[in-house]
Amino acid sequence: MILTGLLFGQDKKDIIKLTDGSIYQGEYVKIEAGNVFFKPEGAFGTQPIEIYNVRKLELSDGLVLIRDGTKVDSDSPKSGSGFGLRNFGGLLIGVSGIMLLSITNREHRFDLTIEEIDAFADKQKNDINFAYIMLAFGGLLIALDKK
């Protein structure tokens, strides 16, 4: 039971990532006069860090306060939540994959006229083109996402 308490009872720490690649866990204190005051784990006091040297400041609850040296609006979504470009792009890719599978498995009756077969082939072609456009657009959205 003690081991369980040690493993699961640990508090999640605030994390600050600096532009030089350093990453520290600890406690965010405040932002004041262009500085972030952060107490790294094991330190005796807070350390002022100029805000433009901060790549990301994420609180233990997932709220991002600073991204790329700029304060993030307090009403913006927590890290990993919301439905941003990456999530929408992934949704488009998933839907296009389902469409392509469905289109590939379509069958027609064997007693169709030439005109009906041509119409079926045209519908297949149009649906496939649309699915590939969705696939490409979804990939583009993911590539454009800044996360």
Based on secondary structure, the structural category is alpha+beta
Please indicate the count of domains.
2
Shape: rod-shaped
Distance between the termini: 39 Å
CATH third-level topology of the largest domain: SH3 type barrels
Beta-sheet strand percentage?
15-25%
Q: Please report the total strand number as a whole number.
A: 7
Give the rounded overall mean pLDDT: 84
Q: Spatial order of the strands in the main sheet?
A: 4-3-2-1-5-6-7
Q: How many DSSP helices?
A: 3
Topology order in helix (H) and strand (E) letters = HEEEEEEEHH
Can you describe this structure?
By secondary structure, the chain is an alpha+beta fold. It folds into two domains: 10-71, SH3 type barrels (Roll), CATH 2.30.30.100; 85-144. It contains three helices and seven strands, in the order H-E-E-E-E-E-E-E-H-H. It has a seven-stranded antiparallel β-sheet, with no helix packed on it. A hairpin with a 2-residue loop joins strand 6 (64-67) and strand 7 (70-71). Helix 2 (85-104) packs antiparallel against helix 3. It starts with a helix and ends with a helix. The model is unreliable at 1-9 and 75-81 (pLDDT under 50).
